[in-house]
Write a structure and sequence with these properties.
single chain; 419 residues; alpha/beta; Aminopeptidase; Aminopeptidase i, Domain 2; 2 domains; nine-stranded mixed beta sheet; five-stranded mixed beta sheet
Length: 419
Amino acid sequence: MNKKDFNEGLLGFLDASPTPFHATKNMSAMFLNAGFKELDESVKWNLREGEKYFVTRNDSSVIAFTYPNGEKNYTMLGAHTDSPNFRLKPNPVVKAHGVVKLMVEPYGGILLNPWFDRDLSIAGRISYLDTQGEIKEALIDAKKALAVIPSLAIHLDEFANKERTINKQTHTSPVLTTSDDFEYDEFLKWQLSKAGIVDAGEILATELSLYDVQKASFLGLNDDFISSARLDNLLSCYVGMLSICSIEEDRPMLFCASDHEEVGSASTSGAAGSFLEDTLRRVFCDYEGFLQMISASTMISCDNAHAIHPNYPDKHDQNHAPMINKGVVIKINSNQRYASSSQSISKFKSVASRLNEPTQYFVAKSDMGCGSTIGPITATRLGLKTLDVGLPTYAMHSIRELAGSDDAHSLYKIILEHR
């Protein structure tokens, strides 16, 4: 796939995936279109060699894999479906001061300031009782700009451009309407009806998020950049999804996109949970075969990397400061915040070199903290040789992030040749 088609598809995927539930649904549809067969965790699996399969958990994590004859040296790709955002509390409605506003809770390490004065919509999962009294679930996406978190005017805050702080409880509630007769459950049923659900009775529970309705786009004099919400980490999800859909059935590959990375991965559908291990043990039910596969395979953990910021260059180690559109970033940390080793690095770099694809290094400054991702978690849980890589990004965890238009396609080409 050429870079233009690759990036156009990326923009569409980003726009169609405002929550992990929507991202997982869209990836599942892609796998079905590519000939993968869907598995159900609650029933016995009867796998056939030469087939391709996928399975989901919690509707927010997905694993896709090939099942070639006798092959055990898998290239595994790991990413995560979640991104920092504001999530609605169970009873969110507050009517005061002439407006209806919604109480929200920050999810993950959210960069707060950019969320003010943006056109926000609502998406996520709703559980409800249908007319037969059965519990059902459905995804909604209002798509329309429904709410805004208004800034306080500079006239009312003498410290606005000096030392303003944001209180997550009192300052971040979005304004929804001035209508006094607003009823939250009726609003949710209306959203369900727009999604084709006409038999919704009692609303039982919700997992709803705010998101910016501005579309993903190219940016820059020569379309140098891709600007979008949720680049961390739907960018890697897209690369992994396309990679496994682009190979033949006899090539051993697995792609795992997990939820809840931004809050530590400790959940049933997170990388610290059992989803990947459970799946691999069902595929390789013989314990000796399972261990042989683990020993022969490599996990490439794909997450975004901090590109050196042109206005804050002192935040990077000068010899390990990746730049946008200069290649995939190999992430290293001696304290195992990243799981890269000389073995996993050398294999990846040899493939990139053969393809004339550039690579870069990121090592955090020794006097600063270092983030982490699913790489060390997966390496610890399964004993897989692991490499942490990423695509250089500005404004990570902002409502709108910035990446290069060359880098994701470069990673895609490397993965296709990684064996």
